[in-house]
Specification:
The complex is a heterodimer of chains A (about 600) and B (about 170). Chain A is α/β, with parallel strands linked by helices and about 600 residues long. Chain A contains 23 helices and 20 strands. The chains are: A alpha/beta (about 600), B alpha+beta (about 170). The structure holds thiamine diphosphate and magnesium ion.
């Protein structure tokens, strides 16, 4: 019996074999054996968060910025239920997470024992897969399978529910990573060549082509982004990115037409509407992108590259589906484009670019900022953040959810993937700060900034304590408009200006709040103070909150109202009446 | 346009697998007309699920893809679509029902006579009741049950549809 180990020790060994360096967690009765095993080893670092939701978001930030699997450890019952929002967020945004949850001992399961929750039942709909481990002998194989499932195919969160007796029992069984496979799980990576051939030929025959790339390219790894750049440049085609895909193509490049969708650029959305061939790589025709489905890009041949077959023909019927990993498919596309010596008709392409330039000249993100004592406009604050950091290669940005998130997406340009972390699918307020903590843990020397709203930041503000404990120089830039701005905007535009419950009453003094946690607080209220405050934030080597007080009633434009087609875009300066008239009927029921 | 399809799904026989399949339908608002499941391969620990469902072509493709995405799922076969595309008759589909009929006199005699036509077997009886075991296609069972209504139909239990494709190809 000398070489047996407890379930908890076996668990740690399996995590180490998987290369886990960090776990974000919070202890409790059911997971004490794991904490005991963690205490007695030096390979894995544990980061103690202050709320389990934050543990999952931190693991997401870690995973998205490093390309590794994020690992979470929470206790049974409330620990597991607190993790549910984070798991759902990771599922919607396809982020690889392994979440270990404690469970009451097997003989108590089903007895409504103290801190018992049906964790596998509750998380079935918000995970890619989950496990209840009933025997210590199974611990190692389940861990290896969980990492495989979380990180391959379309990535996602996986829960391993671990009853306390399983963690304490002895086992002599240890399966190595290389010996674990699951015959029913076989994600496709290589796209079908005949389909890829059709796709490149369609592109070569195009007169008004566009590439629309999303988060799938990021998930396919940094090389996929390089291939995307290569393919886009060799074909000369305009490219747009989704909110999730920002950074897969350098924002400063002239072929980049900006983000598309509800708050995307005029040129990107009109190019999508008017194109004749659309190549979607790693995006999912989300409703924020398509607007009114039956008027979405009505005259185009649509190619859709996705690793998840269930994303294809889900919202939009496409002509050339390609199931596979974005990187592999791009590699094949490039090879075929070369070997067939394909090109797009130069005259047609230059006419198309002429058209796009005329849309671009509308300058849909233009705004004016008065100087001196003038109030800071939120767009200006983010534009300045971009201008003051764009020469650096080490800036990682996360966001909360609301107007500030959209302005950050519009005004901060990303040159590389894995530098922009935002809650796209679920739209989770409270995501950004813990995500930034995870980013900072994974990238200790990077400049990690959470662009926040004053309402969102209060949803996980307790994590200041975590950041201070681990001496993380995370920066929170609060775009403080004193309103739940995005809610206020919809109420202004859609509900006759009846601002029900969207004013953020009784806000704390964020500078004092930061100081009370031992962090640094900075505030700017007028244009003349902005740059110095931003610089102070950027230079700070401790946890810092920058309370950037901005104009209160700003709206986020351009905007395609829900249920409207791409050409019905509202630009800055649109009159109230025109907005009200644009949003009528069915659109009101949409979110 | 909505059509009805029969799916055969081969899964690892493990806890939660049925909940995953059902959750996929309920979570996305798809309907299940019939669902049966039981272990079919003891050694390989495999169960076979037969699902009859309806929806537009887009929904049916989506159902298939979502089923395939589940980790414990080995294979998903749209038996109806396969039969169509291979120019075969629709798949062989069978269902079993246990039908309790309570009555006396003429009605009792008539019930027996109809049972005979449907090749239903009497699996339990007393002076005032029969339990019939009847099997066949879903429509046949529907018809049998309908005919038993005026004759004292008292309780019904149906197994749900099981199905295999025609021809020599296996799943
Ligand atoms: C957890 C959660 N609850 C509610 C919402 C709905 N919601 C979306 S944006 C928003 C307001 C956000 O306000 P703030 O953080 O101040 O950002 P702003 O829009 O003002 O920039 C709300 C309530 C949400 N996205 N997430
Ligand atoms: Mg706000």
């Amino acid at each position: 019996m000398s070489d047996t180990k407890t379930g908890a020790e076996t668990l740690i060994n399996a995590l180490v074999e998987q290369g886990v360096e960090v776990i974000f967690g919070y202890p409790g009765g059911a997971v004490l054996p794991i904490y005991d095993a963690l205490f007695q080893q030096n390979s894995i670092r544990h980061i103690l968060v202050r709320h389990e939701q934050a543990a999952v978001h931190a693991a997401e930030g870690y995973a998205r910025s490093t390309g590794k699997v994020g690992c979470v450890l929470v206790t049974s019952g409330p620990g597991a239920t607190n993790a549910v929002t984070g798991l759902t967020d990771a599922l919607m945004d396809s982020i690889p997470i392994v979440c270990l949850t404690g469970q009451v001992p097997t003989h108590l399961i089903g007895q409504d024992a103290f801190q018992e929750a049906d964790t596998t039942g509750i998380t079935r709909a918000c995970t890619k897969h989950n496990y209840l481990v009933k025997n210590a002998d199974d611990v190692s194989s389940v861990v290896h399978e969980a990492f495989l499932v979380a990180s391959t195919g379309r990535p996602g969160p996986v829960v391993i529910d671990l009853p306390k007796d399983v963690l304490m029992n002895q086992t002599g069984v240890y399966k190595r990573k290389a010996d674990v496979r699951r015959s029913s799980y076989r994600p496709v990576v290589k796209g079908e060549l005949s389909q890829i051939e059709k796709a490149v030929e369609a592109l070569a025959g195009a007169k008004r082509p566009i590439i629309y790339a999303g988060g799938g390219v990021i998930n396919a790894g940094p090389n996929a982004s390089k291939l995307l750049v290569e393919f886009t440049r060799m074909t000369g085609v305009p490219i747009t990115n989704t909110l999730m895909g920002l950074g897969v193509y350098p924002a400063s490049d002239k072929q980049f037409v900006g983000m598309l969708g509800m708050h995307g650029t005029y040129e990107a959305n009109l190019a999508m509407y008017n194109c004749d061939v659309m190549i979607n790589i790693g995006a999912r025709f989300d409703d924020r992108i398509t607007g009114k489905i039956d008027e979405f890009s009505p005259n185009s041949t649509k190619v859709h590259v996705d690793i998840d077959p269930s994303s294809i023909n889900k919202n939009i019927m496409v002509d050339i589906p390609i199931i596979g990993d974005a990187g592999h498919v791009l590699e094949d596309m490039i090879r075929m484009w070369r070997s067939k010596a394909l090109s797009i008709d130069a005259g047609a392409l230059s006419d198309w670019w002429g058209q796009i330039e005329s849309w671009r000249s509308v300058d849909c993100l233009g705004f004016t900022q008065d100087t001196g004592d003038a109030e800071i406009r939120p767009q200006h604050a983010l534009k300045r953040l971009h201008e003051m950091t764009k020469h650096r290669d080490d800036v990682l940005i996360s966001t909360e959810v609301g107007q500030h998130q959209m302005w950050a997406a519009q005004y901060i340009g990303f040159e590389k993937p894995n530098r922009w972390m935002t809650s796209g699918g679920l739209g989770t307020m409270g995501y950004g700060f813990p995500a930034a903590i995870g980013m900072q843990i994974g990238n200790p020397d990077a400049c990690c900034i959470d662009v926040a709203g004053e309402a969102s930041i209060l949803m996980n503000i307790q994590e200041l304590s975590t950041a201070v404990q681990y001496r993380l120089p995370v920066k929170i830039m609060i775009i403080n408009n004193q309103w739940m701005g995005m809610v206020r905007q919809w109420q202004e535009l859609l509900h006759g200006g009846r601002y029900a419950e969207s004013y953020t009453e009784s806000l704390p003094d964020f500078v004092k709040l930061a100081e009370s946690f031992g962090a640094k607080g900075i505030r700017a209220t007028k244009e003349s103070e902005l740059d110095a405050a931003l610089q102070e934030m950027l230079d700070s080597d401790t946890m810092t909150i920058f309370d950037c007080c901005v104009t209160k009633d700003e709206n986020c434009f351009p905007m395609i109202p829900s249920g409207k087609p791409h050409y019905d875009m509202l630009l800055p300066g649109t009159s109230q009446e025109k907005v009200a008239a644009a949003i009528q009927g069915e659109g009101l029921a949409l979110v | 346009m909505s059509e009805t399809r029969t799916f055969a799904v081969l899964v690892d026989n493990e806890p939660g697998v049925l909940a995953r399949v059902i959750g996929l339908f309920s979570g996305r608002g798809y309907n299940i007309e019939s669902l049966t499941v039981t272990e079919v391969d003891d050694d390989a620990n495999l169960s076979r699920i037969t699902i009859v469902t309806g929806g537009t072509t887009q929904v049916l493709i989506q159902i298939r893809n979502l089923l395939e995405r589940l980790v414990p799922v080995h294979r998903v076969e749209d038996l109806t679509a396969n039969a169509n595309s291979n120019d075969l008759e629709p798949p062989v589909q069978r269902e079993l029902a246990l039908v309790k009929v309570v009555g006396a006199g003429d009605k009792r005699v008539e019930a027996l006579r109809i049972a005979d036509i449907f090749k239903a077997e009497v699996v339990d009886t007393g002076l005032s009741h029969f339990v019939f075991e009847v099997k066949g296609r879903k429509e046949q069972l529907d018809r049998f049950i309908e005919l038993m209504v005026p004759l004292g139909l008292n309780e019904i239990c149906r197994s749900g549809v099981i199905a295999v494709s025609r021809g020599d190809q296996a799943l």
